Amino acid sequence: SFLNHTAYLSCYFSNSQKTDIKDLRVFWQKGAVEVVHEVYYGQEIHDNLSPKYVNRTKMDMDKWTLQLLNAGIVDEGLYKCIIQHRDKGSPKVIHTSECLLHIIANYSQPEIAWLHTGELKTNKYLNLSCSSSGGYPEPKQMTWLISHENRTYRIMRHMNVSQDAVTKLYNVTSKLNITVPTNTLTNISCLLHLGEQLGSLVSVPLGI
């Protein structure tokens, strides 16, 4: 789920259409102690909920899906759904399922900045940095792309990562130090690798 959006946690089971909700107790929990949501024989009750989930959950009974509103990074983790049926007075567990919630926050487009002043001189060093901010989870790596004369070179440099103590979002920076190219147009870009499923972000190229 995207940060601050609604997360959907499914608890669908095959006999759900034939079962009267008034005969069921459905509850969601995170870990061993946190009660996220509870439906007690057709009625949603809030007495046992962990405080951080109060007024943040809704159960879609038709789809057997829990909606977790305004999902945050602290909500990441494993959720368990347990359904009990009122069987001759004593409840019996008829279904359990688990959902693993991951949160995604979009990084800003990587941006290249000059780290030195004065004019560029041939065969002197060019110092650049590339940065991106406000994303989650932690990215894999940052790659520099240097293109000239129809050829592109990839350069790996150390990526500095910092995490905001409050928001838990990441900021990343990488620095590049190369000799100033001579007599040919050179384009320098920076690529932020977010992971297999999330793809990559690329900066606007810097032409020298």
UniProtKB/TrEMBL annotation:
GO terms for biological process: cell surface receptor signaling pathway; cellular response to lipopolysaccharide; immune response; negative regulation of T cell proliferation; positive regulation of T cell proliferation; T cell costimulation. It comes from the Eukaryota. Residues 1-97, 110-190 form the Ig-like domain. Its main location: membrane. It is a single-pass type I membrane protein. GO terms for cellular component: external side of plasma membrane. It is found in: Cell membrane. Coiled coil: none annotated. This is T-lymphocyte activation antigen CD86.
